[in-house]
Amino acid sequence: MTRTQSHGLWFFIIFTAVMMTGCQSPVGVTRVDSETVRHQLTKNVISSGETSPYTENVLRVTDLTEAYFDDPREALNTLHHIFLAEEQRKGPVAFALAELSFLYAHKTNQPTYYLAAALYAYLYLFPEDSSNHFNPFDPRVRIAADLYNRSLTTGFISKERSVMILQSGSYTLPFGTLQVALPENRLQWENRTLTNFIPVAELEVRGLHNRYRQAGIGVPLAADQIPLGQEEGLQIAKGKMPVTAFMRLPNLMEQLKKGTIQGDWEVYNAYDRRTVSIQGSDVPLEIEFTSSLAASLADDRVWARELKGFFMGDSLAGESGELIALEPYRPGRIPVVFVHGTASGSGRWADMTNDLMADPSVRDRFQFWFFTYDTGNPILYSAALLRETLQTTVSDLERKYQDPALQAMVVLGHSQGGLLSRLTAVETGNIFWDEVSNQPLDDIKVSDQTRDLLERMLFITPLPTVKRLIFIATPHHGSYVAGSWGAHQLAKFVKLPGRLMSGVTDLLSLNLDTLKLDLQGMNVGSVSAMEPGSPLAKGLAQTPLAPGVSGHSIIAVEGDGPMEDGNDGVVAYQSAHLEGMESEFIVRSGHSCQSNTHTIQEVRRILLLHALETCKTHGLCA
User: Hey, is 285 helix, strand or coil?
Assistant: First the structure.
């Protein structure tokens, strides 16, 4: 080797060493930040508008990466044929087709590709070849379910995007035709027809603390209900019904090869069904109670009637209160009756209802009823309406169901509603009448109508169906606000029911020595009854709960001071405190504490206790 050659060799060795130390190897790893890792692991067409790494792998393996970029439609067609011919990797290819079809549909606004995405997602989730079943920990499972749900929603949504169109029909696919069947009877629930299906995934919920969703398969919807006839036994709320639409696609792989696919819509209401059977397995349905509840309460009339119900004595249903339920009667589930307070309404129970309905341990054991009444009326009058409405409802249901759950009722009331609740489970004898007159009622010369009204209001016997009471911020001994000058002035504007005013006029015609009360100019509405020292407060102070009835107090106290000296802005602790209760719970809150999470959790605790005890006493075990 010459000197020149030797110098050249050394130069090559040194140059190679320098290059190797200054450049990366063809294959290796690089540490990146956690945000980059999170994006790489979780990106998909639903969450970020980008295809997932799983789909990108399929495009590279099938050499379609550039083709999809240049001509997505042709690339999807090619991948579709690969999928039909492929025997070993159908799952990964089906997922890729679902994601790519969804992305193309989104970019081009072509519903036909949303429908295709739903079919591919269905094939990935429910493969007909058992050897292709997926790993349940694979993130593609949840993504595929979302692709199926969202694709059906968008593929069948109306042009104005307000409702989802559920009906039989024929629809074009990129590779054939989808024929959808939906018999009319699948849109009927009890004695109602379901219509106007709003996709709740596209609704933003306001006014409720929590939004609950059961993840699963299908499109969660809020449906209107059209009654087919008279309600039997229990009036059902007119609000939105939570339902889930599921399209069943039997033998889809074989149908896909032929190009004509038959799909069957199935519509399930969330109160009855939480799973659907697919290929012999129970699969959770996608369910949203919260959004349907919020959509129901979006009606301004629900809130306008609160003040109307305080000032106008005949605003609701004439001579009767109104008892409604969210769902038809369910045998074996214990009724829980919510009774709202003054100048309030059933909508104020929304957060509590939302949280309790989302808990299967509560929902599977209880059903919720709501009593609405005109809150300016005399409390004893409203309490009589509550008792009579419950008696009539239970009597009608007993004839049909003979259900022991009806004999284990829970009544729960806030503020004035707590007083009405208490008056379902006491034996008063002559206590209230003795505050009115020195003579027996039988000796009083009044009309039969007035006598009947007085008996209903003042001579109270406990309802045998009520077994537990829950009082929330209830002024058992009166409210200091009710005794204020402002409250007295406000009470003057309350219009009492015509029948009640007729009874008062009848009593005023009696000799003065017959009555203890001076009814001339006296305010007999609910506000005066809630004053400390009122005849109602004094009468209830002498009246314990009926034997066999359990009572619980939830008392609101504002601030951090001693509870014994505190109040909630309307009711003092000392007024809300009641001896003989099974439990007393303090929540640091203002008077309207129904939505307070501590209040709700205490109600939940009491209901589960009740369920446990009624399992032993009535055999009502879940």
Answer: strand
Average pLDDT over residues 466-482: 90
Adjacent-strand bridge partners of 197: 164
- Give the three-class secondary structure for 577: coil
Tokens describing residue 275 = 């799973």
For helices 597-618 and 350-357, angle between their N-to-C axes, nearest 10 degrees? 50
Burial of 174 (0-12, 13-18, 19+ CB in 10 A): middle
Residue 622 lies inside a defined structural domain of this protein: no
Secondary structure element (H or E) that encloses residue 146, with its range: helix 140-155
CATH of the domain at 374: 3.40.50.1820
- Write down which residue in 133, 155, 177 finishes a domain: 155
Rounded Cα distance between 614 and 583, Å, is: 18
CB atoms near residue 559 (< 10 Å): 11
Nearest to 318 by CA among 369, 368, 377, 370: 377
Residue partners of 286: CB distance under 8 A and separation at least 6: 145, 149, 213, 214, 215, 216, 217, 218, 219, 220, 244
Do residues 606 and 470 lie in contact, with contact meaning Cβ atoms separated by under 8 Å?
yes
Q: Is residue 25 part of a domain?
A: no
Please give the Cα distance from 138 to 141 (Å, whole number). 6
- Helix axes of 90-108 and 53-61: crossing angle, nearest 10 degrees: 110
Q: Report the alpha-carbon distance of residue 533 to residue 526 in Å, rounded.
A: 14
- State pTM to two decimals: 0.87
Average confidence score pLDDT of the chain: 86
Question: And the tokens for 305?
Answer: 């009637």
Q: What residue numbers bound the domain in which 49 lies? A: 39-155
* 189: three-class secondary structure by DSSP: strand
Say if residue 328 is in the same domain as residue 465.
yes
Task: Kindly report, residue by residue over 154-172, the tens digit of the pLDDT.
Answer: 999 998 888 999 999 999 9
Q: Indicate whether 182 and 150 sit together in one domain.
A: no
Give yes or no: residues 361 and 282 share one domain: no
- The amino acid present at 266, given as its one-letter code, is E
Whole-angstrom CA distances from 28 to 22, 23, 24, 25, 54 are 15, 12, 8, 6, 21
Give me 524's structure tokens. Answer: 């007999």
- 276-301, pLDDT tens digit by residue? 999 989 999 999 999 988 888 887 67
Q: Which two tokens stand for residue 123?
A: 């094939």
Please state, in angstroms and as integers, the Cα–Cα distance from residue 145 to each residue in 251, 405, 439, following that order.
19, 38, 74
Q: What's the rounded Cα separation, in Å, for the pair 454 and 378?
A: 12
Q: Nearest to residue 44, comparing CAs of 106, 122, 134? A: 106
**Residue 124, number of CB atoms within 10 A of its CB:** 27
